Amino acid sequence: MLTNALQDETMQSKLEKLAASGYEERHLFLSVRPHAFSFAVYNNLAFGGPLPDESPRLPAGLDQLWLVTRWKDGGVIRAIANREWRRDYPFD
User: Fold this and answer.
1) pTM for the structure as a whole
2) How far is CA 51 from the centre of its chain?
3) How many CB atoms lie within 10 A of CB 56?
4) DSSP alpha helices (H): ranges in the chain?
5) Predicted local distance difference test score (pLDDT) of residue 1
6) Do 77 and 54 meet the contact criterion of CB atoms below 8 Å apart?
7) Which residues of 18-46 are buried (b: 16+ CB within 10 A; e: fewer)?
8) SS3 for 43?
9) How far apart are CA 48 and CA 35, in angstroms?
């Protein structure tokens, strides 16, 4: 699901801009809306449900993907390329 979303034309444009930035670390921040994923996936993201066990496969050149919902309970989800999914609570 996430892989498909990152392949869309708008996301590809954002990834190209990041690649052209020249920065060593490349992070993409996305605000996740309820209709972006299935109910179950959005519910897990927004309200602190389980994260995937497998390492995230991000597009080449993207080091971290940050997913933020409008709900404090879910924290901020980070996909760290080829390492892990992490949930942080920067608003506490």
Assistant:
1) 0.83
2) 12
3) 21
4) 2-7, 9-20, 39-47
5) 65
6) no
7) beeeeeeebebebebeeebbeeeebbbbb
8) helix
9) 18
Q: Provide the residue type at 9 as one letter.
A: E
CA 2/CA 62 separation, integer angstroms: 14
Say whether 15 sits in a helix, a strand or coil: helix
- Do the beta carbons of residue 44 and residue 50 sit within 8 Å? yes
Spatial strand order in the sheet of 27-31: 27-31, 64-68, 76-80, 84-88
**Tokens representing residue 1 in the block:** 């699901």
- For the chain, what is the mean pLDDT? 88
